[in-house]
Amino acid sequence: MRLLAVKWMRTLTVCIMCSLLLSLLIAFVPINNSQYLCAKQSATSKPLFTAGTGFDRHESGHKLAVIVPFRDRFDELLLFVPHLDAFLNRQNVSHKIYIINQSDNLRFNRASLINVGYLLVNNDCDYIAMHDVDLLPLNAQLSYAYPANGPFHIASPELHPKYHYKTFVGGILLVTNEHFEKVDGMSNRYWGWGLEDDEFYARLKEAQLTVNRPHNLSTGINDTFLHLHDRFPRKRDYAKLYNQREVTRRRDRETGLHNVRYELIGKKRLTIEDSECVVYSVRLVCDVRSTPWCQPKTGGATSKQQQQKSSSTRKKKKAGA
Ligand code: UDP
Ligand code: MN
Predict the structure, then answer these.
(1) How far is the CA of 118 from the centre of ligand 1 (A)?
(2) What is the pLDDT, as a whole number, of residue 54?
(3) Is 159 in the pocket of ligand 1 (CB under 6 A)?
(4) Does any ligand 1 atom lie closer than 6 A to the CB of residue 179?
(5) Rounded to the nearest whole angstrom, what is the distance from the C-alpha of residue 228 to the centroid of ligand 1?
(6) Where does the Galactosyltransferase N-terminal domain lie (predicted)?
(7) How far is the CA of 287 from the centre of ligand 1 (A)?
(8) Residue 150 and residue 201 in contact, taking contact as beta carbons nearer than 8 Å
(9) Which helix (H) or strand (E) covers residue 218, if one does?
(10) For residue 319, is pLDDT > 60?
(11) How big is the CA angle at 170 (ends 266 and 246), to the nearest 5 degrees?
């Protein structure tokens, strides 16, 4: 019994000595500081983009409204909304997508729809993207960040698959609310295809706003965007009616954001593959005295010519009967 007690005492002493030695070791061996910092950094670092885009994962506090002028491009819309939503989420750009659907019988008016879109949503954003529905950004280096230094033309002529002139600002353009209001938005005189973006460029230039563009991208005109546009089902309305050609070549100092006329006929929320957008349906109002070309030509003639033609046919028919 005595022998057992001595053995037990010995084991206890050895244990106490060991734990004392261990505590001394922990107290005096220095912690590897750099390893500790590395572990801490990797928890808060930015592994989101690999292409060296410099995007910040942290919220910038800015809010982007993507304004899409729209009519009869449903197939493109189905691809556009999920694609752009995911693209902007990867950049941590706080955004909302608004489709401005032209629901009247007038010719398409891209610029007026952008003005209307701006009036409807500007309380919820501090910058906008005027965005074609058929142009999908493919290169993650295309930044949709707040364009503090002046409008940022994402669909640059060096990257757009179709338009390559120096002053081109169509397709996709970022503008702050402040700058959009400064130039009174876009002209309302452009019914049918084209030139409204060139007139907007004249406004920016006159206001001495510099247009900035993406640089040093790893892609070019063939692989920066996907242009979902087949010109046969999606014919461009090139018609120049009345004195449209002459008027639309000039800088417009009378119309813009302050006097765009429209009627809001509906607002719907749409979810496409978990990505949300808001569809505003609007009827634009046209002053036919100042822009008679807002009405579509019927059967190859202008509406006035068409009216004259049909009344003379009626007369002929009557005479023949
Ligand atoms: N658009 C539309 N419906 C039309 C015409 C144009 O929705 O009937 C919109 C759409 O967002 C389109 C943009 O206006 O991407 C520019 O028109 P389009 O693609 O015809 O011009 P492009 O830049 O290809 O010459
Ligand atoms: Mn197009």
Answers:
(1) 18
(2) 34
(3) no
(4) no
(5) 10
(6) 59-144
(7) 23
(8) no
(9) none
(10) no
(11) 95
Rg of the chain taking only CA atoms, in angstroms: 32
In the block, tokens 């009557």 appear at 318
Which pair of structure tokens corresponds to residue 160? 């757009």
Whole-number pLDDT of residue 306: 43
Residue 199 to residue 196: CA distance in whole angstroms: 5
Give the tokens for residue 268: 């719907």
* Whole-structure pTM value: 0.79
Distances (CA, A) of 72 to 69, 109, 125: 11, 13, 26
pLDDT given for residue 297 in this prediction: 85
In sequence order, what E strands does 50-109 have?
Answer: 64-70, 95-102
For residues 241 and 296, give the distance between their C-alpha atoms in angstroms, rounded to a whole number: 9
CA distances for 179 relative to 202, 210, 273, angstroms: 14, 11, 34
pLDDT digits (tens, 9 = 90+) for 74-112: 999 999 999 999 999 999 999 999 999 999 999 999 999
Model pLDDT, residue 298: 79
Q: For residue 72, which atom of ligand 1 is closest to its CA?
A: 3
Domains of the chain: 63-305 (3.90.550.10)
Which residue did the predictor score with more confidence, 10 or 35?
A: 10
pLDDT tens digits for range 127-141: 999 999 999 999 999
Sheet containing 172-176: order of strands: 152-153, 172-176, 127-131, 64-70, 95-102, 275-284, 262-272
**Amino acid, res. 149:** N
Burial class, 126, CB count within 10 angstroms (exposed 0-12 / middle 13-18 / buried 19+): middle
Higher pLDDT, 176 or 33: 176
